[in-house]
Structures are given as C-alpha cells and as structure tokens.
Amino acid sequence: LESGLLTQPWASVCFGESAFIAKACFGDAGYILLISDLSSVWYESADAEAVGQRSKELNKRLTAHVSSFLHRLAGLMSPLLAGQPDTATSFSCQHSADGLSLHVKSHLSGLPFYWDFHCRPAPVAMVSRHLVRPLIRMSLALKYQVQELTFLLLQKDAEIEDYRESGAALSRDRLRTEPFREKMFLQSFMAQ
C-alpha cells in the first residue's frame, strides 16, 4: 500500500471550512490515507483486521466481507479525491491533540454506512517521501524547464534577427516582439 500511495497524486479537498490536500490507496488487504493542511501531516494505515473490527463497531446492522467495506471506502473516497464529491456522502473532520478524525456518512445497500478515519501525525520519513522530495524534484524540473525555454527564446530571437538582416519583413506589424531579455524578465517575475 505504501508504494501504491507514492503513485497517487495529491488532491485538494475541503471539509466544512477547512482545506486540505490528501491522497489515499485502497486494496483488498487494507488502506492508507495521507492528509495535510500544509501545517501538519496526518495518516492512517489500516489492515483488513482493523477494518473488520471498526466496521463491526460503526455499522452493527451491516454484515459483509472486509473486502466489500474496503471497496465501498475506495468508492466513497475516489470521487472526493477526483474533485467530484458525491452529494449523498458527507465528510467532516475534527482536530484533536493527538491527530485528526475524518468522519464519513453514506449508505450501503439501503442502510446507513459510517466510517471514521483516525489519523495520527505522520512520521518525518513519510512526510519527506510523499511531500518534501516530490516538491523538490518538481521544483528542480521546473527550473530546468525554464532554462530550456529561455534558451529557446534566445535562439528564436537570433533566428528572427537573422531574417531581418536578410531583408525579411513582417507582413503584420502587430506581430512584432521585443527581443527577450532574461534579466529583465526574471526581475519582473520576482517583483510580481
């Protein structure tokens, strides 16, 4: 589940007035949920035994195999993480000193279905693996992309200048652009 979670993208989610980013991975043997408000990061990892026990406590009238509960939880969380929450399902959260609880209310086979995710603070290694390292890698990739685009703009300016020196002229003057000046662009960008 941990390696599966690494491949999942972060998604923006709101519970009431609180905004978070979250990602989750569900399987037949359990699930793992990672959620952050960008100040703290919480997670819950539950195996099939824990899911079975909690489902008995929260849903006394429902009897189903653990994989059915896991499939239902995945079905409830997937639309939320895709930015299309199901209106028939309600989510709420509650902060506590030792973590964050995410409450889910829905229906399964015509009966009320409840679930509580009991998230505790994520270890530093997990935060690094799922949040810090990917952000640093993306930052470096974007920096490399900006360098490549700057190089291409400078090449295009040189190409346009060569055309001008050869006597070529624009057929539409509104298309004329000023040569790219990297330092001025960076100063303007940083000022904004």
From TrEMBL:
Q: Which one GO biological process term can you cite for this protein?
A: double-strand break repair via nonhomologous end joining
GO MF terms held by the record: DNA end binding
Domain XLF-like N-terminal: from-to ranges = 9-120
| UniProt keyword list | DNA damage, DNA repair, DNA-binding, Nucleus
What domain of life does the UniProt record list for this protein's source? Answer: Eukaryota
| UniProt GO cellular component terms | DNA ligase IV complex
| Compartment annotation | Nucleus
Every copy of the XLF-like coiled-coil region domain together lies at: 123-171
Q: Does the keyword DNA-binding apply?
A: yes
Regarding protein family, the annotation reads: Belongs to the XRCC4-XLF family. XLF subfamily.
Which named protein is this? Non-homologous end-joining factor 1
* Gene coding for it: Nhej1
